[in-house]
Write a structure and sequence with these properties.
The structure is a homodimer of 413-residue chains. With 413 residues, chain A is of the alpha/beta class. The first copy, chain A, has three domains: 169 residues, 3-Layer(aba) Sandwich (Molybdenum Cofactor Biosythetic Enzyme, Chain A); 78 residues, Alpha-Beta Plaits (2-Layer Sandwich); 151 residues, CinA-like (Maf protein, Alpha-Beta Complex), CATH 3.90.950.20. Chain A is built from 13 helices and 17 strands. In chain A, the strands form four sheets. Chain A has a six-stranded mixed beta sheet with strand order 2-1-3-8-7-6, sandwiched between helices. A five-stranded mixed beta sheet of chain A has the order 14-13-15-16-17, sandwiched between helices. In chain A, helix 9 links the parallel strand 13 and strand 14. In chain A, helix 6 packs antiparallel against helix 7. The first copy, chain A, is globular, with a radius of gyration of 26 Å.
């Protein structure tokens, strides 16, 4: 069963001037899950000829081409013109659409700049896609059985518009192609070990496509295949899922979009436990990740950023003697910080991180990358883990947070 | 003076499976600063034909083509083969290079897998680029006056290799093209206001290329032009710099790569002041950003993550009466948190954030996006700022941190 193919065109000079392209990762993930095979991505300048050429190249190979950006009201928003040129179609002003845009602005009591009329220009044959979060409507075009989808650039407008049009995309290109996708998210395991364990699964499923990604101490493994029927797809997914979890289940913290902080939060909530943190070299990043989860106030109380040793003794009650004897970067200090966080904040559990993030501050005994993470609670349980992390400062800090969250996750088992 | 043109090819199926492409932004920034004009970027699958086609397309339009990724030792590392195919050159095993790779592994007392021999395959006519941070050597190829540069994918290997080869790239393509680039970083100002103020500067410099980027509450503005001589370039840069700072200098916190947390740290260090934080809805992100700066322990002591109200009263001394009367999301609470952080941590200054990050928890009086940031100190100084931030949870939190850091930056003036 041949999966339908998709390609991306990201429009905007800012993407070639230092802005990070997050659309590529977001759209790739969603399209693959819906059964599409990703062929490629191009980032192009705000230039009609360049955008049109990229659209034509993408349409020559892909069933569905998703274009993001360039639908704003200014002179350098040229995606509409480029689409008309690429498909050799007209571009015309739609008074009804213009009235819709005016109505939206009126609702927010805003004056409409005359230049916004550009946003009511529609490519011949396009279906206009409503934008409930901004002024730029999207457009869906069909040509020779393929789709050219024009979406706005801002994520808050693009994400919901894409989700709304995805069923149509699936109907047009992936009908009869029953997609089965499964992703598992792992922590506490190096990519190479996970990769090796998953080798036999890959060997047993030559018809599936697999990807393994490692980032910030987490590993995610994706499997996707297409089947002839919905029943066959469901059955294949179930078998794949079982085989993958048999291979690496002990390291799994979640499936699909379930981050480690989400998975830990769900366990805490289920057990009715609260958590506090104590952070030295990570300076608050663990608390930042825990509170990235909406609703985390149900189990996360807060914590202490004990960057200076004086804060470790004063706010966390780490004994000065302990610091003098073992140093701030030690298993003993990490454990004392975890206990201190738990006690000073009044939580059921404490999680702590202390280490040498670098690039300076390393010694022979305590080199850059040496990190201790510790968990205190629930009850009398205690755990400490020693890590030696290779990489620059941000990598050391990111992986330290993942290790501490994983230690806490295992403690609530 | 025509600037030389550059294009990027990013190799790796993971880039079309959810991995965020950070090379594009990093390389674009550096190439532009060195006087190159960026033409475009393509992300391609690990497929020889696809990589070779992207290389040929890029070489047809750009003077310098930078290829990242696909130089590893495994079967899906195909950039070497693709370059040989794109340039119609040989690919041959270099025993001397293989001995170098063996030596490197020996230094780390590691066994060398046989498959790593692939990394000693060199495209005909290539200059081999040493990799001091990994096993994959880079390759620099010249063809018809153009450059095809093959760099490894991991940032820790790619960044230093690119920096080392950049002078050669400039010599080959930008000789006699004297680049003048200036970037200013702004905070505490909406992009639209900065943009409007900079309009006259753009109008006076039709020969320059400008980009304005907004992200997480910060705005950066880049100007680049090329001149006939180094003296002319220096003079133009100086004039541009003065005009830009005349227009938006009051919002500037830094130039080039100077982040707001770096700029605040530099001011604190110069004045010999220490800082503590108190964070509610940001859960530690402000501390995380402050400690992203290497050496921040010189001025940052730590802080309290007071996510729950009990932590605000207990660890920060915010009066329960104040919370009952004004609520946790109030100017009064923010100010009390800043004072509490300063006092409990023993710092010269305290910075605090409290707000409704959403998506839930908003009310009519305290809607999602309502945030108060406050600074206490140095001395008797106090400042509070009220913000209404549009956007999803992560945008609210990111901009809240920027606003708090900016308030602290202004307080140390």
């Amino acid at each position: 069963m041949r999966p339908p193919k998709a390609a991306l065109v990201c429009v905007g000079s800012e993407l070639l001037a230092g802005q990070i392209n997050t659309h590529q990762a977001w759209l790739s993930t969603r399209l693959r899950r819906a059964g599409f095979e990703m062929l490629g991505e191009e980032s192009v300048l705000d230039d009609v000829a360049a955008i049109a050429a990229a659209m034509r190249r993408a349409l020559a190979k892909a069933d569905a081409v998703i274009v993001c950006g360039g639908l704003g009201p200014t002179f350098d928003d040229l995606t509409r013109e480029a689409a008309a040129r690429a498909l050799k179609r007209t571009l015309s002003f739609k008074p009804a659409l213009w009235r819709e845009i005016l109505k939206r602005f009126a609702r927010y009591r805003m004056k409409v700049p005359e230049q916004n009329k550009r946003q009511a220009m529609v490519v011949g044959g396009a279906q206009v896609l409503e934008n409930s979060n901004g002024s730029a409507p999207g457009q869906r075009l069909r040509a020779a059985g393929r789709t050219l989808l024009l979406l706005p650039g801002p994520p808050s407008e693009m994400y919901p518009m894409f989700e709304a049009v995805l069923p149509t995309l699936v109907r047009d290109h992936a009908r009869g192609v029953h997609a089965a996708a499964f992703s598992v998210r792992l922590s506490g395991v190096p990519e190479s070990i996970a990769d090796e364990r998953l080798d036999p699964v890959r060997a047993r499923w030559p018809q599936a496509r697999f990807t393994i990604l490692a980032s910030g101490g987490e590993v995610s493994f994706h499997a996707a295949l297409t089947a002839r029927s919905a029943t066959a797809a469901r059955a294949a997914r179930e078998r794949l899922r079982r085989e993958i979890l048999d291979a690496v289940g002990e390291f799994a913290h979640g499936e699909g979009d379930e981050t480690l902080e989400f998975a830990l939060g769900a366990r805490l909530k289920r057990k009715g436990l609260t958590l506090a943190v104590a952070e030295s070299c990570t300076g608050g990043l663990m608390g930042g990740r825990l509170t990235a989860v909406a609703g985390s106030s149900a189990y996360f109380l807060g914590g202490v950023i004990s960057y200076a040793n004086s804060v470790k003794t004063k706010s966390l009650g780490v004994p000065s003697k302990l610091l003098a004897r073992f140093g701030a970067v030690s298993a003993e200090c990490a454990a004392a910080m975890a206990r201190g966080a738990r006690k000073s904040i009044g939580a059921d559990m404490g999680a702590a991180i202390t280490g040498v993030a670098g690039p300076d501050g390393g010694t022979k005994e305590k080199p850059v990358g040496l990190v201790f993470v510790a968990v205190s609670g629930p009850g009398r349980a205690e755990a400490v883990k020693r890590l030696e992390i290779n990489g620059p400062r941000d990598a050391v800090r990111g992986r330290a947070v993942t290790a501490a969250l994983r230690l806490a996750f295992d403690a609530v088992r």
